[in-house]
Amino acid sequence: MAGIGGDIDQIVCEGNVIIVNKKDKSVATGNKAVYTKKTEMIVITGNGKLRKGGRILLGKEIHYHRITGRLRAIQPTVIDEGKPDPDEPKKPSPKPNGQ
Length: 99
What we know:
Layout: E1 10-21, E2 26-36, E3 41-52, E4 55-65, E5 71-74, E6 77-79
């Protein structure tokens, strides 16, 4: 959406949105992202998920601040470290010895 003088005020992306923070290797995903130039903030909504430090956070919204590189989940639900990601395909269980 263009502002006065043709400058961009806001960018909206819909579909499979993925944002990667190279500093801390965190990844945010969702169905929709809205970038607002004035605040330098990207807000991800729709099945928001944040993978950070071996943990997965599901949130109502995922916020990414472009200047600081900070990613955070709003109203997060933590999926404990070590538990499988519910969106990843399951691997077959190993067969017991002797079979």
